[in-house]
Structure formats: structure tokens, C-alpha cells
């Protein structure tokens, strides 16, 4: 589903060019769940932004479901995201002036789906917020907002889901609810999941963990054989 | 497209309901309402004042001609549904009781005056009554003065040309008698049909034919379009109230300029408030745009959604603004209805078009740059919140906004000069403010170091938000400046009007007072409790030569009446005066005013410029006058422009006093008498039968009435602009308070005391308010100087008091508004505050 070949990211700073991602190589298979873990500043969110087509690589190639992400312009990447990608963020990123239901409908509407409302209502029910559809984000708790965000991520049945610290802003109880919802939906819809977290417990629920350190991918751990480790990059 | 539309509509609906569009909507509503109410009010007022002013030329338009015009011209006017009347003017001698005098003969047709009122009385100097009639055939109505000089009484016969007329009424007031003190000779009004029999209008006679027209202005304009190619400039002169150079014409003219100015300022205010609101609107939508883009929305879709949303807001704003604008001006019109009759029935489409156009142009042009910024927000912002918009420099924004304002002002005023003055002042102000902001930030850096008190926090905030603050400072300054301009302009204008006619302005003039009569008259008047003004010397002299070259005609054109009627005015002696003080409304345009005279030098004379032009008199020419049996030679040392429409005696020649020491002049003086003492005049003048009295009481009252009405209208305009400006100021503070929300939340969360936060915000606003006030005062000075000297033809003046007042008031008002906004935010608890930030 995702193939990364020697991708790097360099940014300009007042002190010159700074390479924030060293050449990285890895693949993610369809239906697989992968966690990118690492300390703050290790480059995991940057990697996620590149994989999701939110930003462009400085060098290297990324194939996303067969599309050459690195050679697409912003408009083409937006189209690709709309068709194949779902997102969940630590700060939920709901549109404050839309209701819960409307937030969920948003990707479907952007994609031009005629049955956006019907789909939205179904999935809202599925995440257990059927009665909160008309509420605005600031009328919902953090856990509820994240459930809305999860519902929004799945409404277009994306092939791949990117989640950035999905439980980072939640307490333990809500975290658990959100995690199980996320993984259940992921499994049921056979979506590929790439999530960024520093929560090792959450990471371990994924089939594979990629460890980032100072812009480098240093370890890959397969959940099935926790002992198998290797240097990559 | 359907999805885009419904998404845009839904966003608009929710955001409107949640109050998130309030500020931008309010800005548009305010703009449309202010521009509409101001321009609608001023158009209605202008119609009312034009109507009122028309009374002073007895019609809406007048065609003066030295020959009778083709009858088809009059018939054509009637085809346009224009009312017409006709009057013939000539000067002639009138005889009665074996005495004779020059008169101003007016022969009118039925219908005269088309505008204004004719007043007659039953006794000389008596109170006039309005009449719709004209003298019957063989009858004449004559002015009080003539009763005095010819010893007439009602029923007397007077001989004019080859006809005799019976005097049946005292002519008290004619609308088109002008404002000159020496309003010419006493007027005699007869019927037009009686004129032929007098044989006064034969070849060689100096006659002016006046044709009066009244009707709708479109019809009049259309008629003039038809007539213009047929007019001969040498013979015909077309006049409208706008050409009126009388005190009334000028007052109304200035008031109209003021209304225009106020409306233009309303447009600028509108633009400023929309610009501020649009910027805030854009910033608040960075996140939704980033989210939409992340979720796959194309740039085009995002553009459509937000352009649609801005369109919805604009439409709603224009709709509410129009209703509010009409309502506001309706309230204002009813409030002054008893003072100035402004017709509510008259609906003007132009103000509505202008208001809607302003709303659209401001919304589109001022939201363009913020929207471009909004569209450029990268999707990556969902992960990196610090990422904002990436559109090139703010200079483009300033340029686009500046051009938009200039174009709007120009389109509205059709006056590039007034638009440029306001625009250039604005640009200078903005540039100065940018320099000041960075200077302040530099100062602030010094002051901001050390312990974190409220002042330091305020300075730190100003420093950190340099660019935002500069925009805020500019918008505050521009708003305060505009308010100052309308306020100070109104004060100066009304002051000048009042100065023109202070209480106790002389309403009667006496001429022909001899040296011996001077003390007697003063005593007699004082005994009767009447205060006389200064006595000005005056002597009649025959102007005989220019540089030893004899001229065949002597000059005597002492009254504006003749001048406007285009007569040569040669043939009589001229009134000459002397003095060292230049009279008011006299302006030296060449040379220097009479100064101290040196022994051995020729005496100087100042000549009225138009006369000099007509007689080809140049600077340095030697003029010769025969005064009595003496010959006086004087050198032209200056040329003067004279406004003949002032309520004061004016002279063609003013001679160095030293040259006139040998002569015994007659004197002219003036006095004020209240209306209720009018009947005392005959008694007052009893001992001085040789004196001539000029009664300008009616004119002064009319003038005062108009000036009062215009002043009142100006006051209301001022109130409207002040109200609009204050609302803009409130909106600006509100917008900037919201921007401070996040910081307040953080400070609050970190445990900062409410008092510290409040003081720091108040201090910040105090600093911004006082700097804005000071800069506004400076810019106001520049703007006013340009406006007064270039547009309003007024004497410019410095207003130092505002240099102190504006910063203080600016600081206090902005400080209070800031404190109020801060209070509202601090009333929320920390978690509510944090939640508002999301």
C-alpha cells in the first residue's frame, strides 16, 4: 500500500539547510497496521505528513496505493487524499462551525457523494453518538470529539488511515474507548492504518512498530515476533 | 457545485447563528447604512436647500439677455413642462414733485417670481406682506427709499419715461435683489405690458431681459442641453443657483461640499471597518481551510466555498444595511423636520446605488487579500499549527486597498481633487504610522525589559504583535482622523458663518452724511438708543485719465446688480474711498496693499481687478481723478478681487489717505435696529433729509435663517458620522480583543491576576489610543489645510488644541473600549476561555 524509497526532508532555517529526515525506506502492506513511535522531535509527525501527502519529500519516492505521491502537485495530492485517505488528529481538527454530523459528512461531501448525510448518520450511530449529531464540537467532550473525528475518517471508506497521536489529548478511559473504536473500524473495513504515537501500549496494538530517532528510522518491530529487530534506513 | 453551495450555505448559516460572522457582517451593515443614510440625507437636504436658494434668483434657472430672446425658446421650455416668467430691467430717471432720481425699473410678467416671495407694505419701511399679485396696469410699486427721495405717498403719481404711474404699494422685498449693500437705485416694479409705452427700451438703451424658469431639474437640464448651442455668450447668460456667489449660495455650496466630504469619509470608514473585519474573518478560517484541504478539497472548491460565503455575508449585510440606512435617515429627517423642510417623498436612487456599490466593492476588494491568504493556508497546518498563510507582502494589500478607496471616492464625488486630498493625507498617515509603530517597538524593547509588570506586559504585547498592531494603529488613527476632520471642519465652517453675521450685524446703511452732520447724527441716534458703526469717508470723483491718456467715459459701477446684468456701467462719477485697512472679502491679487507713503513718491491707489481688466489698467499706471475742482493723480499699486455680494460697502478705487487730506468727504455708516423697532426709522431720519438709507434687514434675516438651517443640517451629518465612526472603533477593539483571547487564556491559566491582565490590556490600548490620537491630530491638520484651502475656499487655521485633545480622548476612548472588551473575556472562567480558543 505504501512504499518509501530513500525519502528525506530538508527545511531551510536561518542557519542554513537542516535535514530533519534522513533517508528512510520501508513498506506498508494493504490492511496492515503500523505505529510510528519515537520521542518528541524525532521526526515521526514529519514522516506522517509526507506519507499522507500533506507535505512533499525533498528527495526519494513514495508510492501510495500505486500513485507516485512524490511527483503529484498539491491539487493531485488533495484529490488522492480525498479518494483514498482518512485522518485522525490529536487535536481532533473538527470544523467548529459545523455540527458533529456535518463534520462527519464533510469528506463525503467534498468527494461529491450524494448519500453523504445517510452515510454520516449511520456512522454516527456506529460510534455511539447518534443523539449528538446536532451538537457543535465545543459542546462535546474530548472523547466524543475524537469519536466524531474517527467517524469522519471512515465515512469515505478510505484505503488507508493516518492517525496522529489519536489518544494524546484524552484521559485513560476515553483513550481506551477511542482505541477500541479505531481498531474495530479498521479491522471491519480492512483499512491500512498508520498511526503516530509515543504511547507504547497503543503502538503495540499495531502489527508493526517503526521506531524513529533524530530523523532516522532505527527499528522495526513486528508484533507477531517481538524479538525480531533490525536496523533500517 | 451543489455540494459546494450547500456546504458554503451551511457554514454561513451556522457561523451566522453562532455569531462568528457578526463582526464582518456588522462592518458591511455599518458601511452600507452609513453611506446610504448620509448620502440620502444629504441629497434630500441638498434638494431642500437648492429649493430654498432658488428663491434668491426667483427661479431655478435664469437666462439673462441683452436683447429679447426668440419666443420659440420660451415655447420650447413650456414643452419641457417648465414654468416661465419674464422681467425687463433698466435704469431710468423717475420724476415726482419736481424732483428726480435714478431708479431700477423692473417690468415683470404674470408668474414672477417663480420662486421666492414678493412682499409689499402699506407704508414706507413698514412690515412687508407676501403677495401673489403684480401691480395693475398703470400702477407702480416702489421701494421705501423712493418715498423718501421723491417725497411720495401712496396714490402719488410718478413719471417714468413717457408714462405716468400711480404708486399703489410700497415694494418691500423682491427675491432676486442680490446681497450688495448698494443694491442699486430704488426699485420700481411695473407690469411688463406697461413698459412699451414708457419708450425706455429703444435702441441704445441699456436693458436686461431676464427669463425665469422653474421645473424638475432633469427637465431643466434637458432644456439647457437644447438651449446651450443657441446661446451667444456675449449677449446671453445662463444662471443656476449653483452659480450663486452670494453669502447664501456660498453657504449652501460649502454645506454641500461638507455633505460630500462626510459621505466620502463614511466610505473610508466603511472600507476601514470592512478591511479590519475581513482580516479577522480570514484568520479565523485558517483551520477549517486546512481541514478541508486535508480531507481532499481542491483549491478551487475551497475558493468557491469561501467566495460564496463572502457573497452571502455581503448580500445579507447590504440588505440589513439598506434597511438600517433608510431608517436612520428617516429618523434624522423627522427630527429636523420642523427646522428644515426636507421632503420625505423624494426618493433618490443614487445614494442607494452608491451604498450598495460601496458594500460590494469594499467587501470584495478588502476581503480579496485576506481571502487570498486564506486560500494559501497549507493542509499541513493540521499537524503544524504554527503554519499560516503564505502570500507575498502586505504592501500589495495596502496598494489594493488604497486604490479601491481612491476609486470609490472618485466614483462617488466625481471630484478628483477632494478624493486625492483625503487619499494623500491617508497615505501620509499610514506611512508615518508604520514608522512610528516600529519606533515604538524599539522604545518598548528598552522599556519592556525587567520585571514583568502590567506596563511591561503591555509593551511586550505591542512588540510581539508589531504588524498586527500597526494595522490596528492605522485603523484607529484613520478613524479618529476622519472624525476629527468632520468635527473640526464643521466647527470652522459654522464659526465662519456666524462671524459673517454676528448678532447685531448692521441691517441699515446710511450714506451721504456730511462732516457737520456726523456729530449730530451720532448724538441723535444715541439719544434714540441706536448705536452707529464707524463712519467711512467717501467722495465722488470723475475718473478722467490713465497715464495722461484721456478716457471718454467716467466709471461708475458701484453695484453688483449692474455687474451681473452685464451693463457697462460707465457714465457716472465713481465712489472713491481711502483708508489703510483692506476690507474683508477683498483680496490683493497683484501688487501690495497701500502702505506708508514716503514724501516725494506718488500716492497709491488700489483698483478693483475686473474694472482694471475692462479698462486695461495695469500695475504702475498713473490714474487721474477730478474731485471737485482738484486733480488727483495716483499710481496703481495693487489690484483687488472684490466680492460684491458681501453685506458691506465696496469700492472700485481705494486711495492712499494722504492724497485725500484736502477734501471734505461725505460719510457712510451703518447701524443695527431690531425688527420690532422698524417703525422708528422715519422718525430717526427726520432731521437728516439729505441722507439715503439702505435697508438690508430682510436680506440679513433670510441669510441668517438659511445659515441656521444649513448649520443644523451639518450638525446632524456630524452626529451621523460620529456615530458611524464610534461603531467602527468599537468593532475594531472587539476584533482585536478576540485576537488577544488566546494570550489572556494562557495568562489566566498560569495564574495571572485579573487585575494584572486587565491593567496590561488597558495600558496597551491606552498606548495605542494615544498614539493613534496624536497621529490623527497631525494628519487632520494636513487634511484640513488642504481641504479648506483647495476645496472650501476658507482660510486655513491651525488647531493646536486637538493635538492635545485627540491623544487624550483617543487614549481614554480606546482604553475604555479595550477595558470593556477585556472585562467581558475575564468574566469567563479559565476553562470557558480555553474552550473559546478551540
Unreliable residue runs of chain B: 553-571
Question: Helix count of chain A?
Answer: 7
Q: Biggest β-sheet of chain B: count, sense, barrel?
A: 6 strands, mixed, barrel
Give the C-alpha Rg of chain A: 18 Å
Question: Would you tell me the structural class of the helices and strands of chain B?
Answer: alpha+beta
- Globally, the shape of chain B reads elongated
Q: Summarize the biggest pleated sheet of chain A.
A: 6 strands, mixed
Q: Which word captures the global form of chain A?
A: globular
Low-pLDDT ranges of chain A: 225-233
Q: Total number of β-strand segments of chain B?
A: 22
Helix amount of chain B: 40-55%
Strand content of chain B: 15-25%
Give me a quick take on this structure.
The complex is a heterodimer of chains A (233) and B (838). Chain A has 233 residues and is an alpha/beta fold. Chain A is built from 7 helices and 10 strands.
Give an overview in words.
The complex is a heterodimer of chains A (about 230) and B (about 850). The two termini of chain A are about 20 Å apart. Chain A contains 7 helices and 10 strands. In chain A, strand 4 (about 60-65) and strand 5 (about 65-70) form a beta hairpin. Chain A is an alpha/beta fold and about 230 residues long. In chain A, the strands form 2 sheets. Chain A has a 6-stranded mixed beta sheet. The radius of gyration of chain A is 18 Å and the shape is globular. Chain B has about 850 residues and is an alpha+beta fold. In chain B, the strands form 2 sheets. Chain B has a 6-stranded mixed beta barrel with strand order 2-3-9-6-8-7. Chain B has a 6-stranded mixed barrel with strand order 13-15-20-17-19-18. In chain B, a hairpin with a 2-residue loop joins strand 7 (about 155-160) and strand 8 (about 165-175). In chain B, helix 10 packs antiparallel against helix 11 (about 395-415) and helix 11 runs antiparallel to helix 12 (about 415-445). Chains A and B meet through helix 1, helix 2 and helix 3 of A and helix 1 and helix 8 of B.
